[in-house]
Amino acid sequence: MKPLVPSYGVTARQVLGNPRVWILPTVLVGVVSFLLSMLYMGGILNPRTDLDRLPVALVNLDRGGAVNGHQENLGAQITAGIAATAATDHRTDWQVLSAEEARDRMASDKVYGTIEVPENFTTAIAGLATTGQQSPPRPVMRVLTNPGAGSLASSFASTAAQQASHQASQQLGQKLTEAVHAAGVPTSSAAALMLADPVTVTVDVGHPIGSHSGLGLSAFYYALLLVMSGFLGANIIGNGVDAALGYADNEVGPWHTRRRAVPITRTRTFVVKSTMSLALAALTSGLIMVATIGLLGMDADHLPLLFLFSFCASAAVGLGVQAINAAFGGLGQLISMFVFIVLALPSSGATIPLQALPTFYRFLAHFEPMRQLSDGVRAILYFDARADAGLTRAWTMIGIGTVLALILGFGMTAYYDRKGLRRLVPEWQQPGADAAGESSREGKSERNEEGGEAAVSG
User: Fold this and answer.
1) For residue range 319-347, what is the model confidence (pLDDT) as tens digits?
2) Domain count, the chain
């Protein structure tokens, strides 16, 4: 009577006791874990320390006025003084602009915040120096934020602008106090305190975005959905096609099947997988829009353009993954994970602005896909689909990435086919195998099982 559970001769303990079983997984898992830790954490730990030339606009609307008998423009002096600090403090790139230029750069994601000096600034300051009121009106400087640039980028710009404005106010206060004392104008304690720090700094939104925009993060997560759907979809398609063509096992729980191998070249297999990636990119792009915009209510305009961009972006990622997998085989999934996920996320500039990233990540941002895709989605969602807000660059990089993927995929598969490097399958699976071959396979399988213990222990 046959036992209910067949004995295959090799135990789990024998397999685990073989060092060769451990070597490759241990090395790969260790290296991947170490690199993930270095790459992910290395880009976020010191954003303020790494901050370099964060773009902030300076706008002077002041018309000037008489101060102590002299015609002056204190707004121009303040903006020039703030801009001059860039020579010694590289963290902020102060850009002296007109009001129209500042609005345009805010609307195209070129500057992350603005300091605006109002028209009557000099007149209001001069009034403080001559008034005897207990509570004279205070001049105002406005800090305008740009939440579409990202919550952290806008926060950095707002903080830098407020600090610069308060510092300018205190420097101006010293001059006012000295002028009042020299003129012998009597001042109360409250007036003296106001003279020491005369300017009120207000913070307003300069380029508003919708309330359902995740504080400027919805573009990043939307782009991440596009990358993940292209990446995961390509791997699922690759495994599914290999199983359908008989080049991989298909296991679902206790069920295991393997089809007879289909005679097909590597190039044609790449065509099949790439075509399916293109087709399913349209499906996933539509479903992402239905889920995020239709069901969750994410703020979004230019929906036809958003769908077209989403499809092209996800398709480009899918083609890239298929090309890498075709070129490197089983190792391709790990390589594509580093290209499209591991290196792409910390260099995207979407959660932490590029100006606050270490130099290595800024270099990666020139070509890593997440930066290009998040810029394109951000331009569509927050900046009225302006070409100069990053959309043109995004389209360009999608096109370049697609061309490179096709060159790599077709180039490598054609090379393998010319060299006769066909995908190897067991002899019994070769086309034309007969019943005798099946019996032979069973016999070989039994003999392999009997000799398995020696192979594992050896």
Assistant:
1) 999 999 999 998 999 999 999 999 999 99
2) 3
Name the domain boundary from 164, 182, 205: 205
Confidence (pLDDT) at 437: 42
Same domain, yes or no: 274 and 366: yes
Task: Read off the pTM.
Answer: 0.86
Indicate whether 66 belongs to any domain.
yes
Residue 455 has pLDDT above 70, yes or no: no
349 and 237 in one domain? yes
Tell which wins on pLDDT, 114 or 263: 114
pLDDT digits (tens, 9 = 90+) for 182-226: 766 666 666 677 778 889 999 999 999 999 999 999 999 999 999
Does 140 map to a domain?
A: yes
Residue 447's domain spans which residues?
Answer: 1-42+430-458
Q: What is the number of other CB atoms lying within 10 angstroms of the CB of residue 151?
A: 17
pLDDT of amino acid 191? 64
Q: Within this chain, do residues 238 and 339 fall inside the same structural domain, yes or no?
A: yes
Domain shared by 37 and 59, yes or no: no
Calculated CA dihedral for residues 401, 404, 409, 412, nearest 10 degrees: -150
